[in-house]
Amino acid sequence: MKILMVCLGNICRSPLAEGVMRHLVNEQNLGWEIASAGTGDWHIGSAPDKRSVAVAKEFGYDISAQRARLFDSHLFDEFDHILVMDKNNYKDVLRLAKTEEQRKKVSFFLADEGEVIDPYHHNHLFEPVFKEVEARCKKLINQWK
Ligand code: 4NP
């Protein structure tokens, strides 16, 4: 199974979801492939935000080697599930879908249109966002394995 995590900048939320999910998936030898991308192009090639790297490290995950990339329509065919962090991501990703099959791959990371708040302008949100992401990754693995 191939899962793509998507947010806006691909430096705060989706890198956390990517790194945590990959770590947990590898611990259980599930063989799933995990990646992330952003709908905005400002940070292409950059490491995750220092605050995401720090909170991940604090809880035992190393996301420092990940690099931001732009969401692109060819990724619809590369991944089985495209999980978005908020409603804007959902709209931006769906705008690039060309077929019903592609549209069906897109859903909310938190399910039921739940949104992971963008912590970029709020230092104090990185820890709650991390915890929400980690809990959801564990739940997804238990649902899908
Ligand atoms: P992310 O957070 O979508 O969780 O990576 C953001 C990071 C950067 C920007 C916006 C959101 N930005 O505007 O540069």
Automatic annotation (TrEMBL):
InterPro entries per the UniProt record, alphabetical: LMW_PTPase, Ptyr_pPase, Ptyr_pPase_sf, Tyr_phospatase_low_mol_wt
Signal sequence annotation: none
Family: Belongs to the low molecular weight phosphotyrosine protein phosphatase family.
Catalytic residues of the enzyme: 7, 13, 118
Keyword terms, alphabetized: Hydrolase, Protein phosphatase
Coiled coil segments of this chain: none
Classification of source organism: Bacteria, Pseudomonadati, Bacteroidota, Sphingobacteriia, Sphingobacteriales
Source organism: Pedobacter frigiditerrae
Entry protein name: protein-tyrosine-phosphatase
Residue ranges of domain Phosphotyrosine protein phosphatase I in the record: 1-143
CDD domains referenced in this protein's UniProt entry, alphabetically: LMWPTP
E.C. number: 3.1.3.48
Keyword Hydrolase included in the entry's annotation: yes
Pfam families linked to this entry: LMWPc (PF01451)
A GO term for molecular function: protein tyrosine phosphatase activity
